[in-house]
Amino acid sequence: MMLRRGFILFLPRLVGLLVVACCSMSIVYMLACTPKGDNQQLALPRVHSPTVKEGYEAILQEREEQHRNYIISLKKQIAQLKAELQGRTEQLKNMQNQYPDPLDIQLDHSKPEKAQANLLAFLRSQVDKAEVHSGVKLSTEYAAVPFESFTLQKVYQLETGLTRHPEEKPVRKDKRDELIEVIELAVGSLNKPDGVSKAKPRVYTASDFVEGIYRTEKNKGTLYELTFKGDAKHQFKKIVLFRPFGPVMKVKNENVNMADTLINVIVPLAKRASKFRQFMQNFREMGIQQDGRIHLTVVYFGKEQMNEVKSILENTSKSANFKNFTFIQLNEEFSRGKGLDVGARFWKGNNVVLFFCDVDIYFTAEFLNSCRLNTQPGKKVFYPVLFSQYNPSIIYGHHDSIPSLEQQLIIKKETGFWRDFGFGMTCQYRSDFINIGGFDLDIKGWGGEDVHLYRKYLHSNLMVIRTPVRGLFHLWHEKQCLDELTPEQYKMCMQSKAMNEASHGQLGMLVFKQEIETHLHRQKLSSKKT
Questions:
Q1: Cross-referenced Gene3D superfamilies, in alphabetical order (predicted)?
Q2: Where in the chain is the domain with CATH 3.90.550.10?
Q3: Model-level pTM?
Q4: Is 263-509 a CATH 3.90.550.10 domain?
């Protein structure tokens, strides 16, 4: 009787435990069936709902609807992916039909040696198709793929966008690893024994690296040209590497001796004697004292301020013992193209590198070496992208005084910009300039003649080296756009004038100066009241 009574007392508890266990199992089942990514929590039946059973039926119906919607969404995504995949497949087929592979590469894994040979043949064909050994004819100036330059510490880049800077450390890991790999491969190539010389070879290190330039043709690969210090002064080692969608391949390893390579700097000028005095200070320090393999040709238009310009030139000649200069005077209206053309054709010596320059340009001795290294008669012309200085009175307006010129020549976003729309400063051999036909002498005044010459080179088979350089600066000066200019020339002049003043942020501070001052005044009054 006692056992029976105890069992009867325990039975309600057992039923309650079974009900709790069943509910727990139902909840676990519904949680396990919930699709991933669904952030909605499981809605438990409330205490005041009609019955527990009806509450769970409602939950199950809700969950069933959610699963049904989830499946429909997945089906839509799968259909979209299939359509996109089909579209990409069609694009790939069209490209293969349009550009059939001349080597018909088939990587037969049963014959690994043949597959490797086919792959190597394909990679070498990429070198031949890319603009490595010679230039290709281009339709417009916008079709040229520019180079970017780099040293061990910095990358000098054209495509800065809104967040990148014209000069910065290669912070992106892929870019940093890429450039380190290229420099290491170049050093290894230089240290590889040639098997001919019995003398103890020099050991090259990364510290011998001077500078490099690179550009990527996205359907072919990346071309690298690296310059190292040579065995003597004015001698260099140049390594050309190419990455054809795979391993880097050595293209060329050559000695480059620039000890006897003369540069003829040609400057067209009219008036502007004070600017010419500043130019000659730079020319004396960098061209005469540091470089020493340089000639200066000044083509002067008119007679106003001519004696002052000649006096500056003669004084520099006497004080620096410099005799390598030519002064040509033309009694006609100023034409930059005419001045450069006359100066280039006046030269009677051996083939020489011509550097077309303006009086408001500042260059370094390192740039003169870049000018030599990136020109080659019958093969290459050099179109450097110079760094254009903003108006110092705006940049340093909040300072006590404007720094010296040398202290202003800093490549930063706040101090200037890469003048990638300008083609006036250029280096080429005189023979290439004469063969291409020189300048269009019908163009008068400011602008247009440089673009015309640039297009001539692009339309030829010469390789155009276009890269930002860290040693060439356009000094700020107030620009006057004359009424005599043609509408196109006047528009170009005004665009150049607007870009020369300051960065967007600095110009914005000037535009909203009154608004900013009003805000600061209100803040000052508010702080006094509190």
A1: Spore Coat Polysaccharide Biosynthesis Protein SpsA, Chain A
A2: 263-509
A3: 0.68
A4: yes
